[in-house]
Design a protein that fits this description.
Layout lengths: L5 H4 E5 L4 H13 L4 E4 L7 H6 L8 E4 L2 E4 L1 H11 L12 H27 L2 H24 L16 H7 L2 H11 L10 H11 L11 H15 L7
Parallel strand pairs: 1-2
Antiparallel strand pairs: 1-3, 3-4
């Protein structure tokens, strides 16, 4: 449970549909940390956001005792270290397992998400290429779930409990499902990726996750609206 007065000490600047903000909200929920959620419209960006994250001016930003922490996975690891006495442990204790967790969390951000961004923005052949690249990366994750000793046969990447990789990938779950609906694409095929598909369904229903996970229909509607706004209207000949 949250300590007395904790809500005043912890603030989160974000937006409910942002998959990166969802990561942080999951970590806070799993740790039982009470906080004030400050919804950012981003248009315009608030003075507090610009002051708290002057380099990137992006969400999420966690403010703890007046000190801002930026970038979603840095925030998640900060939460684990700042509230290390609160269960569950989001990082493995073994140094090698911890390195593996960081590797796959980085894989999600450095390799997978750029492909998903391509699905979000792409049209025609560009969209198809981004879908294919995304599927290739999801297949690598499926293979890791099948063969890596850290994950194989376990409920989550973190073992019996949700851990760093689960949050890194799982925070994108509603976004991924929304992309599939909005673009009429299949990114995670249950027949080709049974382990990953089952993991995502299990993650979606987990305590601490289901309470903060965006509604997939709303996510798909948001994505469709944004995609439509990217298409330039035809010009007169």
């Amino acid at each position: 449970m949250a300590t007395e007065g904790e809500k005043g000490q912890v603030k989160l600047l974000g937006a409910t549909l942002s998959p990166f903000v969802v990561r942080v909200r999951i970590a806070l929920a799993l740790k039982g940390i009470d906080y004030e959620f400050i919804q950012e419209s981003m248009h315009p960006k608030s003075e507090l956001l610009v002051k708290s994250n002057p380099v990137h001016k992006k969400i999420p930003v966690l403010i703890h005792n007046g000190k801002p922490v930026c970038e979603s996975m840095i925030i998640v690891q900060y939460i684990e270290e700042a509230w290390g006495n609160k269960a569950p442990n989001l990082m493995p204790e073994d140094p090698y397992d911890r390195a593996i967790a960081r590797f796959w969390a980085a894989f999600v951000d450095d390799k997978l998400f750029p492909c998903l961004r391509g699905v979000f923005t792409g049209q025609g052949e560009q969209l198809q290429k981004a879908v294919e690249d995304s599927v290739t990366n999801f297949l690598l994750i499926e293979e890791a779930l099948r063969t890596n000793h850290c994950f194989a046969g376990k409920a989550y990447f973190g073992g019996d409990q949700i851990g760093l990789i689960d949050i890194a990938l799982g925070g994108l779950s509603a976004f991924i499902k929304g992309l599939e609906k909005a673009t009429d694409s299949v990114l995670i095929d249950p027949e080709k990726m049974p382990l990953l598909s089952a993991w995502m369904d299990r993650f979606f229903k987990s305590d601490g996750v289901k309470e903060v996970m965006p509604d997939v229909a709303k996510q798909a509607e948001f994505i469709s609206t944004r995609r439509a706004s990217m298409i330039s209207p035809p010009t007169a000949n």
